Model the fold of this input.
Amino acid sequence: MGGQLDARDGAAPVDGTPGVPTDAAGRPMVDMAALRRVVEYYAQQGWTDGLPVVPVTESYLAEFLARTSRAPGDVVLRMPHLDRVCTVRAAAVNAAMAGCLPEYFPVVLAAWDALTLEGYAGRGIWQSTTGTAPLLLVNGPVRQRIGLNGRGNVFGSGVRANASIGRAIRLTAINAFGLHPHQLDQATQGTPAKYTCCIAENEEDSPWAPFPTDHGFAAGESTVTAMLIRSVVHLEARHTTDPEQLGRDLAGTLARTGALVHETISGCLVLGPEHAHVFARAGWSRTDVRRFVHEHAVNTREQLARVGKDLVSRETRWRVPAGHPDAVPDTAAEEGRDVVSVLNSPEALLVTVAGAHNAGVSAVAETFGPRGGAPAIARVEDAPTQGSTR
Done:
């Protein structure tokens, strides 16, 4: 297992990895003791997310770098407050360690582009006590090309592309930026999404055009959308085919007071295909869903007062109880409204379709919301390839 790479900066060692030998029957012969030593070495260096990683050699790294026209030293994301950057090379090392195949790497780079557009990663929020994590949404032909899952168990395990692409982002956060738990990562409890959270839109079972087409992209383009999430709450609504009942159920899930840290929140509705078709059969577009949920995702002043979130801080605009020394009326109170909207506008809510077309199940992802009002979407580079690595 010669020529191992340093996951932090991609330091170039001497490469001498031979081809894997086989026995007379053609079965691979691997020195498992040596392999375990390498895996344990990576763990001892702190280069993992707690799970074993794939050892990376210079020759294997070259297969990843061949999938992009970018130079290895190009920067894909900066964290100025830490005075650290991630380069294409470091992103490739960590993608390989995460279990990605080389053909996944353009999606990983597009994810970093989208995260840069989103802006939160470079501002320290990935270190938040809330325990935030990036959610990646992939659209376009690249989904089929690399086998991304947009159907059953979309937030769960079992598909290499989803699991390893999302994991590549977290490993890079640990290794390139030093966001180790109990150190620079200050999450109080965290979320399972911090291991990996990458899904594909189920365009084939959606009644609407692909999600990015609402934001200026063509239907045939491969893209990655990045969202910073706090949690994902599942919604069971198998009982109704009425779009207004379903819309109110989604709105009620979004409006839960436990999510109200700031004056308002943002969200992403990940509709199962059955729910998307309930809306579509009634003639609703994604925009109609956003408007209806925005209108009905509300709390009364009394509901907020019961949990000590009826006013906001003068300095931070975080919700605080009456009697707090920094408390001032929230925007709704200033306007004389007793019913308080959770979302500040329909644009604070994104709507996509993912999951199997087999039950009335959807999910509400609580997000930090797109900075600048538009979701962070990046195109996947269509770079020359060097043949299959399967």
